[in-house]
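Handout for the seminar on molecular recognition.
Each group receives one record of this type.
Step one: identify the two inputs.
Step two: read the structure output and locate the region that could contact pyridoxal-5'-phosphate.
Step three: write two sentences on what you found, then compare them with the reference statements printed after the record.
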Amino acid sequence: MTLLSSTADQTDFGSRIELALAASNQLFNPRNAPRYVADVLQAVNLVATKVSRTSRPFTGCAPGQLSPLVAGVDLDRPLPDTAAALEELEGLYLQDAVYFHDPKYAAHLNCPVVIPALVGEAILSAVNSSLDTWDQSAGATLIERRLVDWTAGRLGLGAEADGVFTSGGTQSNLQALLIARNHAVERLRQDPAADAGWLPQALDRLRIFASEASHFSIAKSAALLGLGYDGVVPVRCDSERRMDPAALRQALADSRSRGEVPMAVVATAGTTDFGSIDPLDAAAELARQAGSWLHVDAAYGGGLLTSLRYRHLLDGISAADSVTVDYHKTFFQPVSSSAVLVRDRSTLRHVAFHADYLNPASAAREQIPNQVDKSLQTTRRFDALKLWLTLRIMGADGIGALLDGAIDLASRAGELLEQDPEFELASAPQLSTLVFRYRPEGVDAGTADALNLHIRRAVCASGEAMVAGTTVDGRHYLKFTLLNAETSVEELNAILEQIRAIGAGFLAGARA
Ligand SMILES: *Cc1c(COP(=O)(O)O)cnc(C)c1O
């Protein structure tokens, strides 16, 4: 204490001690376990109350209304307690959040989440295992591995299959294409005539073949992997938005005649807009003939692995060299939860790096299961626990029943739209999306574009329902993505009536 020379210093010292004590009361440990329970319960109760009292997916709040509230928070001045912070958060976030569980949320591939996964979420963030190394995760590693094996088993990828959980389909696609790229380069280098010693020269010749309806993360991956956006050859689709095998055959032949190397064929099992599933058998056969890797992007369609009535839509997926599955879409898991699976576990070596401080090569030799050896990430959440508890509590059939319900709902919505002369369906529903537009007789193409853009904005601004928009052959359409088996046909009808009313109002205004 002799170090303290003035009263000011003494006050500082006192308040520093107080601060340190208060802060250490917030650490999650045995002493503070009761506080943990009480505080998390406050939060859980708040969300439950909020959900019970919301009766629409959104308030329609605009960014300009919320941003001053968020900007006005002084982050250097904490509130007195958790209750106060939660109360503040209610106004900043919960009040105007977009709620995916609401039956009139029909916009993007966001699912209502299942309670077993929320139970898992509570555990995994508190224990905070990190899945990079065994010495940071232990049993969590084994649970993740079992789920990778379970998924690969349902895919039928064979005894040598493996994979790893990722943050989402974008990362799963990137990792699969990274492996495919290195696989292709390795093979090129075995051929002295190929002159592929210098990597940029090799990359220049590699091509990825994906349908024009494939997800943009394929093109993004190509750019990240050094192929450029031009490295992706878009393959034409048929009228149902599935990759046309004849067009793929032609694209592969044309590419070969230009001296290019087919690095990967990407088949999509569930395109984001149409839910269309590319012909998997034909894609596999053409990829095999071309000596190409076959990646199946089943980010959306992956849930069919649990379906009781529609599993056959994935027939042929077992021929893939790699597969992307998003559990946070059609397995009803909270964000984030995804996996990339490979047919041949040895191909995961393409992402393995050994760091002496983390996962030395000696650990791999001793067969210590370090998941970082297979992952693009280092520190990584134990997202697998959510799926584990989901399977242990409700079972795979339960997931499948929820997905089947959403698919049936889409098919009924398709009938509604088909029967209605004021709506145009872009193509019959294939999974759980519907692409359509409001276009009563006599509305020209330009007006139809403006009309449907307006409807999309007006519906979302009302907050009564959420629908998405997309373009088909350059024209503006609306889109339903249905993942909520509890949504009734009446509720879908109500959204259609709202669309009609907004649309009719727009047309009347345009005429006046
Ligand atoms: C959603 C989606 C992705 C991207 O997945 P994220 O989890 O959003 O990163 C990739 N491919 C398809 C077909 C998708 O629908």
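Reference statements: The chain has a mean pLDDT of 95. The pocket of pyridoxal-5'-phosphate is lined by residues 109, 168-170, 173, 215, 217, 268, 270-272, 297, 299-300, 326, 338 (CB under 6 Å).
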